[in-house]
């Protein structure tokens, strides 16, 4: 018997590859699949640009995260049946962009410490209230429900993740990257709540390189000062007047 788990939020599979404006490809784990979704193009200065141009783009993104995840519960081999795929239409893309925009605006408000817009909350709640993708067991003799999940179910599962993202348990953990020139935000899921960078591969590495150069410059400065002092020209005592030994003597000029 195997468990087919359609919920990425339960498996903890977050993160995606982004491409910055200079063409650098880097891995960004926002800490939440809802924020990952917002970073497909809705979160302002997104370095990846717009990723969801067509309904097919939406289908690819959803299937990468919500296609059935098979977990083997015993020694039996997983079924070789084809994996059901989510099919999308243009109206699904319209719905997805509306949900994505609401998530992005709520995330900005949370990071900025501002009041949220009630309409954005209504949008997330509306999607979360619809049927999501249920987990299922394989090996039965009858098919329960659809053979493949609908796009609306995937968006509902995504919206329920957003409800958790903006709940009280994450208060103060949605924050911006610490780099001065970076506006990317993330959910800090670390136990000690000490995450600082959007990615160690990007801003974290830049900060380490900058700190290394500053330490080298600071250690080199005293050495340069000592060397300059050692190489400074010395004033000869012959060029100065000899000081009189007694008050009645006059200085002797050379």
- Strand percentage: 5-15%
Instruction: Let me know the largest β-sheet.
Output: 3 strands, antiparallel
Arithmetic mean of pLDDT: 79
Distance between the termini: 109 Å
Number of helices: 7
Order of helices and strands: EHEEHHEHHEHEEH
* Radius of gyration using CA atoms only: 31 Å
- Per the principal axes of the C-alpha atoms, what is the gross shape? elongated
Which percent bin holds the helix content?
40-55%
Can you count the beta strands?
Answer: 7
Poorly predicted regions are: 1-12, 69-80, 242-249
- Alpha-beta content class: mainly alpha
Strand order, sheet with most strands: 4-1-5
Structure description:
This protein is mostly helical. It is built from seven helices and seven strands. The strands form three sheets. The protein has a three-stranded antiparallel beta sheet. Strands 2-3 form a two-stranded antiparallel ribbon. Helix 4 packs across helix 5 (118-128). It is elongated and about 95 Å long.
Secondary-structure map:
Elements: E1 2-5, H1 8-11, E2 16-19, E3 25-28, H2 33-38, H3 55-66, E4 69-72, H4 90-112, H5 118-128, E5 136-137, H6 151-165, E6 174-176, E7 185-187, H7 200-230
Antiparallel strand pairs: 1-4, 1-5, 2-3, 6-7
């Amino acid at each position: 018997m195997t468990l087919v788990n359609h919920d990425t939020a339960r498996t903890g599979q977050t993160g995606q590859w982004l491409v910055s404006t200079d063409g650098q490809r880097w891995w960004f784990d926002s800490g939440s699949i809802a924020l990952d979704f917002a970073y497909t193009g809705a979160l302002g200065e997104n370095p990846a640009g717009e990723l969801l141009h067509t309904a097919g783009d939406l289908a690819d993104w959803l299937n990468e995260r919500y296609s059935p995840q098979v977990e083997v519960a015993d020694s039996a081999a997983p079924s070789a049946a084809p994996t059901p795929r989510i099919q999308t239409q243009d109206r699904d893309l319209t719905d997805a962009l509306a949900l994505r925009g609401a998530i992005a605006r709520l995330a900005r408000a949370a990071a900025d410490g501002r009041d949220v817009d009630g309409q954005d909350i209504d949008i997330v709640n509306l999607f979360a209230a619809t049927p999501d993708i249920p987990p299922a067991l394989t090996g039965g003799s009858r098919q329960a429900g659809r053979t493949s999940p609908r796009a609306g179910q995937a968006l509902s599962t995504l919206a329920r993740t957003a409800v958790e993202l903006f709940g009280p348990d994450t208060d103060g953990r949605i924050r911006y990257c610490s780099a001065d020139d970076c506006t990317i935000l993330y959910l800090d899921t670390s136990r000690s709540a000490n995450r600082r960078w959007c990615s160690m591969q990007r801003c974290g590495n830049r900060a380490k390189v900058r700190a290394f150069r500053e330490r080298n410059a600071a250690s080199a400065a005293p050495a340069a000062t000592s060397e300059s002092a050692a190489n400074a020209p010395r004033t000869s005592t012959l060029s100065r007047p000899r000081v009189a030994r007694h008050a009645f003597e006059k200085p002797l000029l050379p």
